[in-house]
Amino acid sequence: MSIDTPPITPQQYEVLHGGGAEAAEIAKQRLSRRRFLRRSMLAVYGVATTASVAGALYFMYPNLAGQFGSDLNVGKITDFPGAQPKDFKIGQAGVFYVQPAKTYLVHLAPNTQYQLSGSNLKDQLSTESFVKGADGSYWVALYQRCVHLGCTVPFRDDCVSFKCPCHGSHYNVDGEYLDGPAPRSLDRFAMSSDVQRGAALYAQYCFQCHGLNGQGLTGPKLNGNPAVNNLTDDDILRIISGGIANTSDPSKLLMPAWSEQFGGPLTQIDIQYLFALIRSADPNYLSKNGYPTGPGSNGFSQVPSNLQNTNPTAYQTAVAQATASASGQLGQPVDMTNKKAVTLDIVPPPSGATCSPACFSPLNVKVKVGTVITWVNKSTTPHTVTAMVGENPSSPTPAAKIYDSGATKLIMPNQTFTYTVTMAAYNFNKNHAVFYYCQIHPSMVAELIIVP
Ligand code: HEC
Ligand code: FES
User: Fold this and answer.
1) 70 alpha carbon to ligand 1 midpoint, in Å?
2) Cα angle for residues 185, 186, 190 (degrees, 5° grid)
3) Strand ranges, E, within 123-264
4) Residues lining ligand 1, Cβ inside 6 A
5) Of 74, 215, 242, 381, which one has the greatest count of Cβ atoms within 10 A?
6) CA 153 to ligand 2 center in whole angstroms
7) What domains lie within the chain, and their CATH numbers?
8) Which ligand has an atom closest to residue 165 CA?
9) How far is the CA of 97 from the centre of ligand 2 (A)?
10) Any idea which ligand is nearest the CA of 186?
11) Cβ contacts of 442 within 8 Å, gap of 6 or more
């Protein structure tokens, strides 16, 4: 994740809020209050927090649990039933005090009417501190301290609001300022579920081999794969942590190890988030363990938007790959028959991945005879653009008479290769498609569909 300073914990927040030297130290690392709040994440709910899994993890990695600086897991989604504000009861419905986080967790049932006149729910949601649950409910985490002079603010069931005992500041159920000396609304902590976190990690580390939608590419399908669903919790955690050995060559791994314990980039908590993501795709697992099911519960649906935000180029490639794998081919061709000259990019593989099936972008284009195609190497490694004999990408042979940039004069980064589509290319295969690849990275395969 591209977070340049570690997330802040409620404890740090407390220190910062209370002033003093420690606060100055923490504040020094921060940019703006907004970004600061955004980083104060609490992992609130999700499927990974079943007792057996949490227990097993604690046993394996005792010093990581609840460590200063790490996310705080405050429990299962089902421990905090939502309600309409009129039915709120502290600790039972709608509003819960979460002691380790010094925070009120507010869970508004679906269809809650919004509280303040003049502010609408949509605006509130875009402030990014409200989280929408899979069931259409809303969550918000409110810091317990009064923004006037810092007294702890209790929730009052009788008036369905937060009322500060010190000087009478008054906030509604979602922490908005109503009246009294406080200058603004209660502070909110950013919040996310382990499934959401898992989707963000997946969009960084896993989609390259397992596909944008978990549909499988060079790695197996993870989204809705019965074989994966049938793995035990421990097996899934162990596989992600330690990778998968290649039994015919134990010095190599079929899948890399992801846990920092084995030299990978991820903490054990990250691995638990990924576990939660994979389990969220299994409705049977969810219902068996008492988690909400339904269209919003499958975390793989959040991966594309995560990737689109963090790495638009990789996103384009991944979409092409997802289309390719869905159609069993290289996807629907992009129609470029109205152009005399087209540019195709050779893009870098997403970090940690190889260019498989391709870092040609787009992967599949439809062009006319006579079109001038320029490949631009926007990656950091040399490649070739080489037409192949026939249509079997698994054992490509160069078809140099069609086109080949050449294994001896590689297309270096920022260099280009140009080819004008010929009639010979049109007639080369009976379906008028030419597959091409990179001689250095033969798993990079793409396609031209040629029309006369
Ligand atoms: C470089 C490619 C690659 C990347 C990146 C990758 N995997 Fe894998 N993964 C594989 C391969 C290949 C296999 C299957 C190995 C085998 O043949 O048993 C696999 C298997 C798995 C399995 C077991 C599936 C089964 O059917 O048994 C899980 C779970 C898994 N990966 C999760 C992840 C997660 C989570 C990430 C991201 C942190 C990830 N993988 C990233 C290549 C990759
Ligand atoms: S500290 Fe809460 S109103 Fe003054």
Assistant:
1) 26
2) 115
3) 131-132, 138-143, 155-156, 161-163, 170-171, 177-179, 188-192, 244-245, 253-255
4) 205-206, 208-210, 218-220, 222, 227-228, 236, 239-240, 244, 254-255, 258, 274, 352-353
5) 74
6) 8
7) 77-189 (2.102.10), 212-310 (no CATH), 328-451 (2.60.40.420)
8) 2
9) 19
10) 2
11) 396
Distance from Cα 255 to the centre of ligand 1, integer Å:
5
**335 has which bridge partners?**
366
Res 394: pLDDT: 58
Instruction: Give 66's Cβ-side CA count (13 Å radius).
Output: 8
Q: Is 27 helix (H, G, I), strand (E, B) or coil?
A: helix
Q: Give mean pLDDT in consecutive 10-residue pieces for the chain, a chain of 452 residues.
A: 40 48 45 37 35 22 30 71 90 88 83 57 51 73 87 92 94 89 81 78 90 83 90 91 81 85 88 89 84 76 85 80 57 85 85 64 89 92 88 74 90 94 91 85 82 92
Q: Which of 244, 249, 441 gets mutated to test ligand 1 (max ligand atoms within 8 A of its CB)? A: 244
pLDDT given for residue 331 in this prediction: 63
Q: Residues near 191 by Cβ (< 8 Å), separated by ≥ 6?
A: 41, 42, 44, 129, 131, 139, 140, 141
Q: How far is the CA of 170 from the centre of ligand 2 (A)?
A: 9
CA torsion through residues 86, 87, 92, 94, sign: negative
Tell how far the Cα of 151 is from the centroid of ligand 2, in angstroms.
6
Contact 101, 141 (CB under 8 A): yes
Residues with CB under 6 A from ligand 2: 146, 148-151, 164, 166-169, 180-182
Token code pair at residue 384 = 């070739």
Give Dmax over CA atoms of the chain in angstroms.
86
CA of 163 to the centre of ligand 2 (A): 9
Q: Which residue owns the Cα nearest ligand 2 atom 1?
A: 149
Q: Are 68 and 11 in contact (CB under 8 A)?
A: yes
d(CA 298, CA 302): 8
Give the number of whichever ligand sits closest to the CA of residue 256: 1
Backbone phi and psi for residue 258, each to the nearest 5 degrees, phi listed first: -105, -20
Atom of ligand 1 nearest to the CA of 202: 37
Q: What pLDDT was estimated at residue 69?
A: 40
Taking 3-state DSSP, the helix, strand and coil percentages for the chain, each rounded to the nearest 5, stand at 30, 20, 50
Got the DSSP string for 387-413? EBSTT-TTS--B-TTT-B--SSS-B-T
Q: What pTM does this model have?
A: 0.61
List helix spans (H) across 72-137. Answer: 121-125
Using CA atoms, how far apart are residues 365 and 373, in angstroms rounded to an integer? 11
